[in-house]
């Protein structure tokens, strides 16, 4: 059983997080465990991208993503499960690793996106980076159960 489980959620493909949530609910310590759902808004943290948006627009986008994550959690998590939510900006793998350290996560559970071999070879995989650099256990879920419907 794990006390603190981090689940990254890609709100553009929320179905990928459902198997991770199901596993996390089985692995969460019923005596005080907490789930942490997080999502990452890529782009705005880049100086080049940020120069095209005023701070009010960035704040509005952050609030919209936050509301989307709140709605997602309300639909996916049982009401009695202690949880927290957070929205970050930047590179997904780096933000996941930093958040896991910040909350002292015992486990990260995430679903691997099915990308082409060329994408993985050229760009690398967020899940591979998290596995390589995280200071806690990482469970990567893949397979037919992860295909979005």
Give the helix/strand layout.
Layout: E1 4-8, H1 17-27, E2 34-41, H2 47-50, H3 55-76, E3 83-89, H4 92-102, E4 107-111, H5 117-123, H6 126-133, E5 137-141
Parallel strand pairs: 1-2, 1-4, 2-3, 4-5
Organism: Marinobacterium aestuarii
Pfam families: Usp (PF00582)
Family: Belongs to the universal stress protein A family.
CATH fold-level name: Rossmann fold
Rounded radius of gyration (Å) = 15 Å
Mean pLDDT: 86
Low-confidence region ranges: 119-124
Main sheet: strand order: 3-2-1-4-5
Strand content: 15-25%
Structural class: alpha/beta
The separation of the N and C termini measures 30 Å
In brief:
The chain is α/β, with parallel strands linked by helices and 149 residues long.
Explain how this protein is built:
With 149 residues, the chain is an alpha/beta fold. The protein has one domain: HUPs (Rossmann fold, 3-Layer(aba) Sandwich). The protein has helices at 17-27, 47-50, 55-76, 92-102, 117-123, 126-133; strands at residues 4-8, 34-41, 83-89, 107-111, 137-141. A five-stranded parallel β-sheet has the order 3-2-1-4-5, with helices on both faces. β1 (4-8), α1 (17-27) and β2 form a beta-alpha-beta unit. α4 runs parallel beside α6 (126-133). The chain starts with a strand and ends in an 8-residue tail after the last strand. The model is unreliable at 119-124 (pLDDT under 50).
